[in-house]
Amino acid sequence: MRLAALGLSHETNTFSRVPADYAQFEASGILRGEEVAQRHGTAQSTMAGYLEAGERLGVEVVPLLFASTGPCGTITRDAFERIVGEMLERLGQAGPWDGVLLAQHGAAVADGFPDADGEVAARVRRAVGPDVPVGMSLDMHGNLSERMVANTTVTNVYLTNPHLDARARGLDCAGLIVRAVRQEIRPVQALETPPVVINIVKQFTGEEPMKGLMTDAMAAAARPGMLSASVAEGYPYADVAEMGMACLAVHDGDAAQARAAARWLAGRAWERRDAFVGDVLSVEEALQRAAAAPRGPVVLMDVGDNVGGGSPADSTFLLAAAQAMEVRRYLQTLYDPAAVQACVAAGVGETLSLAVGAKTDDMHGRPVSVTGRVRLLADGKFEDPRPTHGGQRFFNAGTSAVLETTDGHTLVLTSRRLGNTSIEQMYSLGIWPERYGVVVAKGVVSPRPAYEPIAAEIILVNTPGVTTADLGFFTYRHRRRPLYPFEPEATYP
Ligand SMILES: [Zn+2]
User: Fold this and answer.
1) Is the same domain home to 221 and 242?
2) Cα–ligand 1 centroid distance for 140 (angstroms)
3) How far does the centroid of ligand 1 lie from the alpha carbon of residue 141, in Å?
4) Same domain, 224 and 344
5) What's the predicted TM-score (pTM) here?
6) What are the backbone angles phi and psi of residue 437, rounded to the nearest 5°?
7) Are residues 248 and 317 in the same domain?
8) From the CA of 446, how far away is ligand 1's center (Å)?
9) N or C: which end of the chain has fewer CB within 10 A?
10) In angstroms, what is the span from residue 138 Cα to ligand 1's centroid?
11) 35-48 confidence digits (pLDDT tens)
12) Separation of 301 CA from ligand 1 center, angstroms?
């Protein structure tokens, strides 16, 4: 049995002004053939789960192409057509296939294709024909569409946020496809999309309301004959028709049972709708609480500069307030290649004055003037063998500078946009976050595996920006209506 494994994975923030063009994907690495196995074999990603299925189940899984890049704006038409074109070309050349495994994200938007994942699934289905089982394992932030489901045999979604089960879900999905190829099962899928948006600050699956809903998902999956049950939390920063949450059930042969399970799960989500509305502290409230904490580090989640959600990684709202409020023993990263170059020009041990951050656009604060000593310069590459959000192992922040400022702040300046999902980011630079009073993590949920083990407290902060928790900040043109809580009169079923 031969299964093809391939994917174009992107989480698209349609409010971001940084387009996902071909150069962006190339810079992140468009992996072909054996490169996919080299990069993902020892990782914890979806693709790693697909490859593991090959070893465990005694089938041949052939990696063809995997392209991904950090969350940012809409994928350009050129990038989409070139990458998907190459995917299909490789699929055609190396076929025929017994099955196909797609490693998509689920919240990709391309110019001309608002449901880009549905478009990829449809093109793959067209290429292999109606009888070849196609599996697709998605990120929990996917905005699921009927088109994605109609063009796959089995779709499943991670069950954890932070995402620590990407590999396991990839393996599950591949396992079902192998059984479908052997005609041991006949998967039928049902998608229910209750009209609810889960605010990004309520998406942590370790806490209510998501914790209970995931218990319900397990119960749905345990019903007789059920093959899989998933809840996609959705990605509120993609202004597309399918934005919002989704419940997906897969039954062995009985469409009515699949529909009943998906409806029941969607109903359980709908009952919790009030608990999915966001409530977070202001910048000043959060810094006051952190500064008054009996012990540190207090980790402040910079929600408006959630790099994993498509933010620019250079927001200065927290830094500016920390400077004004004289909060010391403070640590944060900032994407600022020009500032890194200034530090490189000055040299290690030298002191300089410069303005840092907020250079991508005008939505993430203003550059902050600081004076500091360059303690360290580094190439910014590091590796984390621990479980991290999404299962990534190799990281690259680009040329980086550690600046110790006269405000009592440690600033890690980077040349590439990178969130704070790995504590190795700090250890590799000789920084111990444990020794700080306040540590800023640009994200909402994704930094938890890195910082929960050392944080005295984690506080979510309502910073402005393209990933703000304040969804009233955005003008949506394409989302479905009604959607709770935007339209409180929404009803379900
Ligand atoms: Zn995600």
Assistant:
1) yes
2) 5
3) 4
4) no
5) 0.86
6) -85, -45
7) no
8) 8
9) C
10) 9
11) 999 999 999 999 99
12) 16
